[in-house]
Amino acid sequence: MNPEQLAQGKRLSKAGAWLQFGPLIGVAGTVVAIIRAFDVLREAGIQDPRVLSAKVADALLYAWIGLTVGLVGLLLIATALFVSRYRAVWIFWLLVFYAVVFLTSFPIGSMIGLAIFYYCLTHRAEFLRRILAPNIQPMCPKSCDALQSPGTIPMLSPAEITSLLPKLCVRFGFACHRATASAFAESVPPKSTRSLTPCSPRKGFPEHR
């Protein structure tokens, strides 16, 4: 991948991620504007319904601006994904989050969420290969040639990632066991430093010599 194209995709994705705060700010502005509108109407009374409609329209303007900013951010992220071909772990989890959010909006949002989930599952190797690549060399012989040249990361199929996950879990379990055993061995003092005291015989039992 071209370094300039990679840097451009990184900038676009980060800008799009920051713009996702626009809808939250817009909703907050709408809530504050509606509260102020009802305070004004409570003090002055509802003499003209057009006053209430004007206040509500002004309040909804903040939400419209926030949604527009959020859509611009989504377009920037889509440009970074499909045009610049930028891949990162945090983008993968951002897409998963948006898929969960869209699934709650039945039925059109659910279709969009399922499409995002399908894209994440079919392209997860492109996003997560930076995590899995350092653990591939001792377990995947097909990727050893690609790992020998510096700066290259092998492409993994979903079947290869699925076969690697149990081995990674087993290695992680062995590493935790070794760390726990070494910590316990350091905490226990050696036998030579222990103070041994003779045991006194119990009452009612003869002492054996």
What is the strand and helix layout of this fold?
Layout: H1 3-19, H2 22-44, H3 49-82, H4 89-103, H5 108-122, H6 124-132, H7 144-148, H8 158-187
Helix pairs in contact: 1-3, 2-3, 4-5
Please sum up the structure shown:
The protein has 209 residues and is mainly alpha-helical.
What does this structure look like?
The protein has 3 domains: 1-85; 87-122; 128-181, no CATH class. Helix content is 71%, strand content 0%. It is built from 8 helices and no strands. With 209 residues, it is mainly α. Residues 133-153 have low confidence and may be disordered.
Features:
209 residues; mainly alpha; 8 helices; elongated
Helical stretch tally: 8
Average pLDDT rating = 75
Shape: elongated
Helical residues, percent: over 70%
Give the biggest sheet.
none
**Tally of discrete structural domains:** 3
Radius of gyration: 31 Å
Alpha carbon gap, first and last residue: 84 Å
